[in-house]
Design a protein that fits this description.
The chain is mostly helical. The protein has ten helices and two strands. Helix 4 crosses helix 5 and helix 7 packs antiparallel against helix 9. It starts with a helix and ends with a helix.
């Protein structure tokens, strides 16, 4: 009996589904406005001191260190900041590849002969002091980048390197002069990346 009353085709199935959908009675009502009985997330965060900002006596610079037991320690002294090796590796790799790319563009634009890729790569990465200098600078300055003194240093680096690049590219567009451009361009981009966005703009 049940099989004979079942819908036989798609049209009947759709009609039956629509009829069943229309027959559902959902009461319309406003959500309850009662105050929560337990503690809110904001109150829990305030109890655990998760919303505290930097102290007024030590403004704008707070670093956190995760200890071996999983606890978090606040570090306010720039000399106590340990080197984040993964950050240094990623930053250095990206900047070294950027330095090589800028070298390739300079040689392609200003050299009399088309550059060969492999010798240029070796001369700018393996046989050049630039990659080691980049790694050293990133390892020393990046962990302390949030400190106001470091922000002032990065701002000065960005302004000096950017001004030289604009002046050299407009007035001295020669290969002998523009060979300095990749290093200064890399320094300029890195300094802007390390700056806070309010200063970088």
């Amino acid at each position: 009996m049940a099989s004979s009353e079942a819908p036989r085709n798609r049209k009947e199935r759709r009609a039956q589904a629509k009829q069943g959908k229309d027959s559902i009675d959902v009461p319309l009502a406003h959500p309850k406005q009662d105050t929560p009985k337990g503690k809110t997330l904001l109150e829990i965060a305030q109890e655990r001191q998760l919303l505290q900002t930097t102290d007024e006596s030590n403004p704008a610079y707070t670093t956190h260190r995760i200890n071996e037991d999983g606890t978090i320690t606040d570090i306010t002294d720039a000399s106590d900041v340990s080197t984040p090796y993964l950050d240094v590796f990623l930053y250095s790799t990206s900047l070294i590849l950027l330095h090589f790319t800028l070298n390739l563009l300079v040689h392609h634009q200003f050299a009399t002969e088309r550059p060969s890729l492999v010798p240029l790569f070796l001369s700018t990465t393996v046989f050049s002091p630039a990659p080691w200098l980049i790694i050293l600078l990133v390892a020393l300055l990046h962990p302390r980048a949030a400190h106001p003194a470091m922000q002032a240093l990065f701002a000065g680096m960005a302004l000096t390197a950017g001004a030289w690049l604009v002046q050299a590219s407009n007035e001295d567009p020669y290969l002998a002069v523009m060979k300095k451009a990749p290093a200064l361009g890399t320094l300029w981009i890195w300094a802007v990346v390390e700056l806070k966005w309010e200063i970088a703009l």
